[in-house]
Amino acid sequence: MFVPDQSNCGELSLLLGNCEAAKSWQMVYLYTVLYITGFGAAGIRPCVSSFGADQFDEKSKDYKTHLDRFFNFFYLSVTLGAIIAFTLVVYVQMELGWGMAFGTLAMAMGISNALFFAGTPLYRHRLPGGSPLTRVAQVLVASFRKRNAAFTSSEFIGLYEVPGLKSAINGSRKIPHSDDFIWLDKAALQLKEDGLEPSPWKLCTVTQVEEVKILIRLIPIPACTVMLSLVLTEYLTLSVQQAYTLNTHIQHLKLPVTCMPVFPGLSIFLILSLYYSVFVPITRRITGNPHGASQLQRVGIGLAVSIISVAWAGLFENYRRHYAIQHGFEFNFLTQMPDLTAYWLLIQYCLIGVAEVFCIVGLLEFLYEEAPDAMKSIGSAYAALAGGLGCFAATILNNIVKAATRDSDGKSWLSQNINTGRFDCLYWLLTLLSFLNFCVFLWSAHRYKYR
């Protein structure tokens, strides 16, 4: 009832787009469910990593080590979930259908929620500091209202801050004043007309203003990881199309093409398992950092490896396309070429897995430590937002490429026939964009000052 008739919708029909189209109300239902799922994920992803990191005592001498290991373990858990999704869930879907696959996931989520709430008495809770978005809005509104006020006027008393050692925000230490973004200081500009009990929409504390400044300073770093998310999104579609033309057999075992994206997850799992025994000791000797590399260095390593990954993808796709043409497969793009194995794709998959480990884990730890005390979840939300923007950016880029490269016959770089299309050119374009993005990151990281 909720899905189109799939009785005559085999793999070939699906690839050629000959399956029965969904009705309008079915699409509305699908998008409603997807957006509800996205809404739930938006509540979980920024908060779960921050909440987990809150369990460690900042005063402990091993705090940094515990925090570093937690974020690695956290991403290891996320990767394990992705591996199960691309293997076990795919198997359930192929054998028992989509309904059973989604039902299995719903039951797993229910068990997960039950376990989470069962542990509530054991958790360490950070004091709630109120809505961070409200405090940001108050600073912006107050600074706009006093945009014409001068720091040298006779009405100027000073920059407002509550007395004592604690700030006015629960769970937050006082943050000293900085000289960046002077226009935001207008929000803390205390004038005689403000009175004794001014509204927070007219006068904010220095700490509150500095919170907003920190959030602004952080933006360039996660923004530079949008490109990595874009590349990952392209891999999930382009690499699967490549795999349809290649031999996916391991001796007598044939792997489903839909399982190919599991290999980045496996490489992430392996690298995270070896991270402390191999990478940290080697890089510690080079950098002198007890953790092997700083957070921004790890993000930079990840972005650099992603460039190598997408460059290799371009090289292999160029070879695969010429091989298909030379061996008579140019217009037979749904037939696997028996002598060209799909496991050449593992190189780009493993490289992008390495990039994820360094970039995403380093980014999560960086944002958690650098975000204001009462805004830790906002810092983690930056990473999730960058991931989402990468998916949107991939769609926009593909639409631009299709429109710009379409010829009179309707063919483009992203033609349905991968052997007449030019996926390799798209990979080269991604390589160029990734390199430019890496240069921007180096400039942003060089300017950034750790708190």
From TrEMBL:
It is a multi-pass membrane protein. One of its GO terms (molecular function) is transmembrane transporter activity. The chain crosses the membrane at residues 28-48, 69-92, 98-118, 214-235, 255-278, 299-316, 342-368, 380-401, 426-445. InterPro entries: MFS_trans_sf, POT_fam. It is found in: Membrane. It comes from the Eukaryota. One of its GO terms (cellular component) is membrane. Belongs to the major facilitator superfamily. Proton-dependent oligopeptide transporter (POT/PTR) (TC 2.A.17) family. PANTHER family: OLIGOPEPTIDE TRANSPORTER-RELATED. This is Major facilitator superfamily protein. It comes from Capsella rubella.
